[in-house]
Amino acid sequence: MAKVLKASEMKKCIGCFTCMNICSIVNRQNHSLSKSAIKVRTSGGMAGRFVAIVCLACDDPACMEACPSGALTKRKGGGVLLNAEKCIGCHRCESACITQSVFWDDEENKPIICRHCGSCARFCPHKCLNIEEVADV
Asked: Which of 6, 8, 71, 100 is buried most, with the most CB atoms less than 10 Å from its CB?
């Protein structure tokens, strides 16, 4: 079965950014938070709660439809996989994402796409994130 990342317990988030750091390390071999496929932000300043901007693993991904080069393909369980060699750096996937969860690597001129690997969920100290099994789409 496929797995999908869910940010279901964000009320427990303290904004430590461990999820973002581990995502960058595991998937991009980089310690920069800007290379992460998950972003944690506040929803109303320091007094507000934290929210996670994550790929929702759409069944019919707008980002894939917008890609003119075929660099994005449907992933089992929802969402997309990136073939970086096919990517032409047009940013269309980024602007097409309905949740604004396609981020951009300016150095490589390629999108940063969540693979739903679950590394962020495994290392979250407060279990704010989880990885759920879903039926293959």
From this structure: 71
pLDDT of residue 137: 56
Cα angle 59-60-66, degrees, rounded to a multiple of 5: 145
pTM greater than 0.70: yes
In DSSP terms, which residues pair with 80 in a beta bridge?
A: 74
**DSSP secondary structure letters along 91-120:** -HHHHH-TTS--EEETTTTEEE------HH
H/E stretch holding 20 reads helix 18-28
Position 44 scores a pLDDT of 78
DSSP bridge partners of 112: 103
* Count, residues in the chain: 137
Structural domains of the chain, ranges and CATH numbers in brackets = 2-134 (3.30.70.20)
pLDDT in tens, 37-59: 999 999 877 777 999 999 999 99
Q: What's the mean pLDDT when you consider all of the chain?
A: 95
Q: Determine the distance from the C-alpha atom of residue 102 to the mean position of all C-alpha atoms in its chain, rounded to a whole number.
A: 7
Alpha-carbon span 55 to 92, nearest angstrom:
16
